[in-house]
Amino acid sequence: RAKSSGAKQYSFYSSDMNARGDELLSLEADLRRALSNDEFHLEYQPQVDLTSGSIIGAEALIRWVHPAHGLISPVDFVPMLEKTGLIDTVGEWVMHQACEDCRAWHAAGFAQLRVSVNVSALQFNDVELLGKVRRAIEEEALPAELLELELTENIVMRDPQGATEILQALHSMGVRIAVDDFGTGYSSMAYLKTFPIDVLKIDQTFMRGVEIGDSSDAAIVEASVLFARKLGLEVVAEGVETRAQLDFLRDCGCHLAQGFFMSRPLPQAKLLALLRTHPSW
Ligand code: C2E
Ligand code: MG
Ligand code: MG
Ligand code: MG
């Protein structure tokens, strides 16, 4: 992974800022300082239950506001965190912050809302992952069932045997497991059947196809929903931007949806404000 994305990792500096070489090199130093400088924060994108129309949880998404360059996308800096090994500390911070914020939703009267946290390949392969997850839920006093970890197909398929053991250990802790970006990586039906997973998140590229009337993408979404339901998994559609997409998903029997149509990712205070309006879709 590191090799193939090597050129892309610096792209936001070179294309957006026409930077010189020494600026490229300063990125790593910037990232090292970012955590202690409070430059990271989390935003939360609501997940909506399509039966009730209400918010049942939210996905935590990391944001980096660089003091000079402004907001930088996680698509650009998460690979850099992985390359430098900083993902260990930053990932742990994300886990704790997400659990703490989820507890705050409960304290504000929104009981039982769950939080999803993205886990990168290196985090998943960290031998201390289980301990870190356990510490986060214990120290933040979050019921384990309300924490969900999102992993891509490729992460678990790289070493299916080893992944199964880690997933089982997480499961026995009570933590839920979601397969993120489903349909875009290498999955195997045989493994999806045996992995202890709870949720499939259908990748947003398929929702884009639904919107422009691509019948293959619509068929993939419909089949994925059926597939998940038949396997007893919960299914989430990502990237819902229009009413038509939402109606389509309801007709398909999809359980949950996430996307700009309902809400963009929001900082904690704005999420709480939205919850207080008791929105329904
Ligand atoms: P992801 O986990 O698949 O997250 C979904 C991405 O789609 C988010 O981008 C979200 O803002 C965006 N999105 C949500 N709804 C819509 C929509 O309706 N339309 C469109 N066009 N986009 C939508 P974001 O926040 O830029 O995150 C990108 C990726 O970065 C995430 O993909 C995830 O893989 C990674 N990431 C984000 N936060 C973290 C983190 O805390 N840790 C790790 N390891 N990775 C993270
Ligand atoms: Mg995700
Ligand atoms: Mg995704
Ligand atoms: Mg993604």
Automatic annotation (TrEMBL):
GO terms for biological process: cellular response to nitric oxide; phosphorelay signal transduction system. One of its GO terms (molecular function) is cyclic-guanylate-specific phosphodiesterase activity. The keyword Cell membrane does not apply. It comes from the Bacteria. Residues 24-279 form the EAL domain. Signal peptide: none annotated. The keyword Protein transport does not apply. Keywords: c-di-GMP, Phosphoprotein. This is cyclic-guanylate-specific phosphodiesterase. It comes from Acidihalobacter aeolianus.
